[in-house]
Amino acid sequence: MSKSSNQISTQQKGTSDKSHVAIVVTLTIVINGLVTLLFFMEGLGGDVEGFDLTILPMMNAIFNSFTTVFLFTALFFILRKNITMHKRFIYAAFTSTALFLVTYLTYHALSESTAFGGSGAIAAIYYFILISHIILAIIIVPLALWTFLKGITSQVEKHRKIARWTMPLWLYVSITGVIVYLMISPYY
């Protein structure tokens, strides 16, 4: 009896892993696909009368700031083995990231990108931060989703293994998002 229930448990884990892969792949394609689509079609939404669209990049930076604070707080609690508080702050980080995504997509659907006006060394620094931010933002989508799914399904060892990569990369993306905003904001 133990052998057959062990086989069922293994089969359920295999099915669970397959559904997690499907969820992560689907969300990654949808999220990164929307951002890519808007990159090529930006500004097609037209003007929104009476609404200053430049507030949206500021909101992006605010949401990224919240994400950073929530991630550091989640890290603080997990290092103290307070799983309940860790989960709450991870949920908060996903919420602020989702709000960031909404404002980011809205802005780029309605407005053209702003060109960076600096030159010389500051331009090189800006573009290094921007390019590394973009590349890691693409990568963090499936990493964060996979890590989250392993955590909420109590696959602790898998969660810990991937979280060691996810946490610092997600922190980098959220921090550099704010830095990019601060560097380009004078040119809006």
Can you walk me through this structure?
With 188 residues, this protein is an all-alpha fold. It has a single domain (2-187), classed as Up-down Bundle (Four Helix Bundle (Hemerythrin (Met), subunit A)), CATH 1.20.120. 82% of the residues lie in helices and 0% in strands. It has helices spanning 2-41, 55-79, 83-110, 121-152, 156-184. Helix 1 runs antiparallel to helix 4 and helix 2 (55-79) runs antiparallel to helix 5 (156-184). The chain is globular. The chain starts with a helix and ends with a helix. Residues 1-11 have low confidence and may be disordered.
Number of domains: 1
Main sheet: strands, sense, barrel:
none
Helix content: over 70%
Give the name of the CATH architecture: Up-down Bundle
Shape by Cα distribution: globular
Nearest-integer average pLDDT: 87
The separation of the N and C termini measures 68 Å
Number of DSSP-assigned strands = 0
Total helical segments = 5
Regions with little confidence, pLDDT below 50 for 5+ residues: 1-11
**Mind telling me the C-alpha Rg?**
19 Å
What structural category arises from helix and sheet content?
Answer: mainly alpha
Order of helices and strands: HHHHH
CATH class: Mainly Alpha
Strand content: under 5%
CATH fold-level label? Four Helix Bundle (Hemerythrin (Met), subunit A)
Protein name: Putative membrane protein
Organism: Sinobaca qinghaiensis
InterPro entries: DUF420
Transmembrane segments: 21-41, 61-79, 91-110, 122-149, 169-187
